Amino acid sequence: MKKGYFALLFLLIAIFLENAAEAKSLKKGEVYRSLDRAAIEVISGDELEMTGGGKTTVAKYGFKGDKLRAVIGDEVIYFEITKAGLKDEKSGEVYYTKAALEEMRKFTDNGNGTVSQGTGLMWQQGENKKVNWDSAIAYCENLSLAGYNDWRLPNIEELKSIIDVKEEPTINKTYFPNANSFFYWSSTTSAGLSSYAWYVGFSGGSVDLIGKSFDIYVRCVRSGQGQAISHSTLSIPDTQSKDEELQKLKTFITDQWKLVSQIPPPKRDWRELVTLKITGKYDDYSSLYLFGLNMRGRASDAFASADKFLKKGDLKNAQKYADLAIRHYIESQNLFKASEEVFSGSISMTAQILEAAYRGPAEASKYGWGLMCGPKCYEVADYVFLLTDFAMDYGLEGMDEAKKNLIAKAFVKTLLKMGGISSWIENRTTHLIGGSGLYGLMDKTINSPEFQKAFMKALAESGAYSAKKLAEAGAKKVIQNSLMFVKGSSNLKPAN
Question: Could you give the domains of the chain?
Answer without folding.
Answer: 2-99 (2.40.128), 107-222 (3.10.100.10), 244-353 (no CATH), 358-496 (no CATH)
